[in-house]
Amino acid sequence: MDKYLENLIPEVSNAWRTDELFLKVKGNTKYLYALMDDETRFWIAQQVGNTKYTEDIEPLLKTGKKLTGKSPLTFFSDGAKNFHQTYTRKSLSR
């Protein structure tokens, strides 16, 4: 099943949403970032980070781009600067 799923390219829209939540793991704060297609609600990618900095979000968007073969035209977030900075980097935008 894993081999089959690795070769699938999800059909997602050009609008994606992202958000994060923090949780404690053995007393250490971690951030769980999620990336989801706005139209289909397909869960594109997730990333666990140690901080809320741009470097911890970049792998999330790179994974999303790699899995779907594209970048979104519209990117929704809670308005946090770290999401905006990561999205507008040349390596991630169209």
Question: Can you tell me about this structure?
Answer:
With 94 residues, the protein is α+β, with helices and mostly antiparallel strands. It has one domain: Nucleotidyltransferase, domain 5 (2-Layer Sandwich). The protein is 29% helix and 33% strand. It is built from three helices and four strands. It has a four-stranded mixed beta sheet with strand order 3-2-1-4. Helix 2 (54-68) packs across helix 3. The protein is globular and about 40 Å long.
Question: What's this, in brief?
Answer:
This protein has 94 residues and is α+β, with helices and mostly antiparallel strands.
Strand and helix order? HEEEHEH
**Global Rg:** 13 Å
Characterize the largest beta sheet: strand count, sense, and whether it forms a barrel. Answer: 4 strands, mixed
> What best-fitting shape do the alpha-carbon axes yield?
globular
Number of helices: 3
What is the CATH fold-level name? Nucleotidyltransferase, domain 5
Tally of domains: 1
Report the average pLDDT across residues.
89
Question: Structural class of the helices, strands and pairings?
Answer: alpha+beta
Q: Give the N-terminus to C-terminus distance in angstroms.
A: 32 Å
Strand content: 25-35%
CATH class label? Alpha Beta
Question: Which key phrases capture this entry?
Answer:
single chain, 94 residues, alpha+beta, 4-stranded mixed sheet, 33% strand
